Structures are given as structure tokens and as C-alpha cells.
Amino acid sequence: MTRETVFSIVIVIGLLAAAFIAQAMGETFYITLATRMAILGLAATGLNIALGLGGLVSFGHAAFFGIGGYAAGILATHAFNSEPLLFGLPGTNQMIVIWITGAIAAALVATLIGLISLRTSGVYFIMITLAFAQMIYYFAISWPAYGGEDGLSIYVRNAFPGTNTLAPMSFFLICFGLLVIGLILFALIRDSRFGAALQAGRQNETRLAAVGIGPFRIRLVAFVLSAMMTALAGALFADLNRFVSPSMFSWHMSGELIVLIIIGGVGRLAGPLAGAIVYVLFEFALGGITEHWQFFLGLILLAVVLFARGGVMGLLAGRARHG
């Protein structure tokens, strides 16, 4: 077991322990903070597949985050109002169905975006993914059937079999369980032959092509898997807030996910989660003091880029082993 794996397990267990301590103290607000950390950690872990392993700096992952959120909001609204969807299909308040729907929708959109954007690289890839996300953002704003720029309320949190999702601890455990699954999936991808090829393509795609492996197909699969995980987090985020709005599609959200990865450690197993913990703690600790708390977060980001490029995980576990 590597040092990075040990510290990753410590961070994950630490988040779980913090939630149980908050539960024992009767502080449900802190359970909600832990839930937010888990959801953002899952969303950033999804992006970490594309960015950390594949070197794909996507400024469009807010599109998939928002798709997951709107899948939860739209299906729940139609179920609540007993109104059919397209082709007479019913809405639903079942989380598992919502997660699958959001993931499939994100996969379809990611395939379309990937087929176009992955034929480019560098700043062109960044701008194309950003452009697609902004197109979806403005579509959501001009979609009055689901609230337009005012967003859409989810009146009752969606259901999970055998669980009272309105209980903060129960909902946290659902989010935490999906986070752990996401981290395990990331580790399996990273250590697989597919992950090795993906990381090799990041370093030298010419050599990868020379051994008969097409970088484009590998990156497309990684991009789609990344989008599906981020969409799952978006559905959870909508249920946490019981509200979805076009801001979930905003480029600010994409930038936030990238910041989480950089702070925690690009390509590191628990890097996105570590970044999410730091981000939410700063938001909570400084947000009540000044509305400009992100200025101080920016100073931390600058320090990480200049002096600790491995992020929090780099400081704890040392340099990463590159595939």
C-alpha cells in the first residue's frame, strides 16, 4: 500500500468521522457541510479522470454537473405534479432512476462534445468545451417551462429505497457511499491498462499511436466516463439544495471544479476530495466574515501553483508516481 493510498484513506475516513461527530453533537448544519464536501469531491473526481489522467483541461464540465441537477429537478417536478414527460413517460422521485437518467443524458452530450472538441488540443479544447457549456447555460436561462433564470425548486427531496433522505445523516451516507465508489472507480481506471494508455497519451500521444493505440478513442471514453460521474454529483447537489438553476451550468462552476483539483492534487486519488474540504472550510470560515473570501482562496491557489504543485496530497504523500 502506497503512502498516497494511506493518506487518501485517512482523508475519506476523516470526512466520515466528522459527520458522525456532528451527528453526536446534534449539529446537523455540519453534516450538511460534510455532504457538500462529498458531493463536490465526487464531481471533481469525475473531472480528475479527464484532467488528471488524460490531461484534458475541460472548462465545460459544468454542463454535465447541470445536466445531472436538472435531471433530478425535472423528473421530481413532474412526479410531484403528476404530469407526464415527453411521449407520456412519467416523472419519478426515485434517486436511482434519476442518477441513471442524468448519467445517460450526460454521456450523450459528452459524446457529442467530445467528438468535436477532442480533435483539438490546448487552448482550442478549453474554448470549445467552454463554448458548449455556455450554450447549454443560455438554453437553461431561456427555458421557461423549468423556471428559466429563476431556477426550479424541488419541493421534497427525492427518495432512496429503505432510507429517509430528509434526515441529514442518511443523505450524507448516500453521498459518501457514492463518493467512495467514485474514488474506487478512479483508482481502477488509473491502475488499468486503459488508464496507463490514457496517461501515456497525455505525455506523448505520438508514441501511443506508434504502438497501435488511438489516443482519440481513449480520450473520448475517458471524457464520457468523467461526464457521467460529474452528472451524478450534480443530481446529488440538486437534492442537497432542493433547487436547481442555470448557475449549475456556468463557467464559474467549471472553474471551481478545476480549482478543487489543483488545490488537492492533479491526478491524485483523494486530491479532489481534499480540495473540496479546503474549499468548503474556507467558504464557511471566511464567508461569514467577508463576501470577498475567495480572494484568500485565490492566494492559496497561487501558493499551490508556485510552491506545492502536488497540492495537499503532494504535501502529505510526496510526489506522484506517473503512469
From TrEMBL:
InterPro entries: ABC_transp_permease (IPR001851), LivM-like (IPR043428)
Compartment annotation: Cell membrane
Membrane topology: Multi-pass membrane protein
Coiled coil start-end: none
The keyword Transcription is annotated on this UniProt entry: no
Superkingdom of origin: Bacteria
Keyword annotations: Cell membrane, Membrane, Transmembrane, Transmembrane helix
Transmembrane annotation, as ranges: 6-26, 47-76, 96-116, 123-146, 166-189, 220-238, 258-282, 294-317
UniProt keyword annotation of Protein biosynthesis present: no
Protein name: Branched-chain amino acid ABC transporter permease
Species in which this protein is naturally found: Nitratireductor rhodophyticola
